[in-house]
Structures are given as structure tokens and as C-alpha cells.
Amino acid sequence: MTPPARPSLGALFACFLRLGAVSFGGGMSAWIRREVVLRRGWLDEGQFLSGLALSQIAPGPNAVNLSIFIGATLRGAAGATVALSGLLAVPVLILLAAGYAYFTLRTMPQGAWFGTLLAGAGAAAIGLNLANGVQLTRRNVRGWAAWGVMAGIAFAIGVLGVPLLIALAVAVPVSLLLTARRAGASE
Predict the structure, then answer these.
(1) What is the pTM (predicted TM-score) of this model?
(2) Residue 96 pLDDT > 60, yes or no?
(3) Which residues, in sequence order, are CB contacts of 99 under 8 Å at separation 6+?
(4) Calpha distance 34→70 (Å, rounded)
(5) Cβ atoms within 10 A of the Cβ of 87, count?
(6) pLDDT at residue 27 above 80?
(7) What are residue 59's phi and psi, to 5 degrees?
């Protein structure tokens, strides 16, 4: 299979402008994956997952980090700048308008609907993020060891309230050990 042609800076900007206009919050990585991997084929699943992992451990919002990673991977520094600019253009305008609306409408008696609107948008973002997690899990978690590590991390963080850094400090060496053991057994 031949790799897809490198996108133009205009195509990269247009793609991320659209993504920034239709998605927000935690669900944005799902939209980015859909556009960049599934729809346009600019990156393969492995490249995207590497970028997503790097974006999650780097400081800052995941979607911003991911847009910079994808832009830089596809077109270097100019691509990173264009992808980030496209991603942030519409949200910045919406944020300014929403801020104006919030400070104007919150003092009016009928302004309570604005908080309900924001709560609904948050629920939608959580749903998108959950759907992305389920899809990525089905495609990438293989074998009992991987399922065990994933379940252990989910239980430690979600049920026991273990901080993420501590959970990762335990899970990463365990994962590496299990992967090395599986690779040694297959040789």
C-alpha cells in the first residue's frame, strides 16, 4: 500500500479548522482520529496512538498537543503552526462570544438555561471520549496480560483513587515486563 500524499498546508488548516468548529473537550481526540486516520489516511493507527500517548503525557490540552504532533509529523514546523491555528480559530471566537453571553445573560431572570446548556455539552464530550476509548480498546488491547493491566489501572484510579503518576509508575514496568516475557516466549 502506498502512503498517502502529504497534505498541503491549506488542507491541514481546513481539516483542523473544521475539527475546532465541530468538537470540543475530551471527545476531540476521537474526532481528530476519525478525520486524520480513518477518513483522510494521513496517519496510520500506530502513528496516531503514538501521538495520542505523547499528547497525554505532555503538559497542556491533549487536542492542542495532538494537533501540533500531527501537523509537525505531516509538514514540519509550518504544519504544526497551521494545524494549531486551525484548531483554535473557531473556539477562540466562540469562547469570546460565550463569555460575553454569560456575563450578559446570567444577571437576567431567564439566563439559567445557559448553565444547563453547558452541562449538556459536557455530557456529550464525555460520551465521545468514552466511545473513542471503547473503539481503541477493541482494536489495540490484545491478550490476557494487556487486559489485566488495563483493568488494574482502571480499578486503581477509578475505584481506589490512586493518583495517575503512581498508577503509571507501577503499570509501565509491569507492562514492559509482560511484553518482554511474551516476546521471549514467542521466540
Answers:
(1) 0.58
(2) yes
(3) none
(4) 13
(5) 29
(6) no
(7) -65, 145
Ramachandran assignment for 12, one of left (phi > 0), alpha (psi -120 to 50 degrees), beta (any other): alpha
C-alpha cell at 1: 500500500
Per residue, what are the HEC states of 96-108? HHHHHHHHHHCCC
Q: What is the pLDDT at residue 109?
A: 62
Assign 3-class secondary structure to 14-70.
HHHHHHHHHCCHHHHHHHHHHHHHHHCCCCCHHHHHHHHHHHHHCCCCHHHHHHHHH
What's the mean pLDDT when you consider all of the chain? 86
The C-alpha cell that represents 131 in the structure block? 466511545
Which residues, 6+ apart, have CB-to-CB distance to 21 below 8 Å? Answer: 90
Q: Please write the tens of the pLDDT for every residue from 53-76.
A: 999 888 888 899 999 999 999 999
C-alpha cell at 119: 452541562
For the ranges 25-29, 55-59, 141-145, which has the lowest average pLDDT?
Answer: 25-29
Q: What is the DSSP letter of 2?
A: P
pLDDT at 108: 65
Quote the percentage of the chain above a pLDDT of 90.
40
Cβ neighbours for 87, distance < 8 A, ≥ 6 positions apart: 16, 17, 19, 20, 63, 64, 67
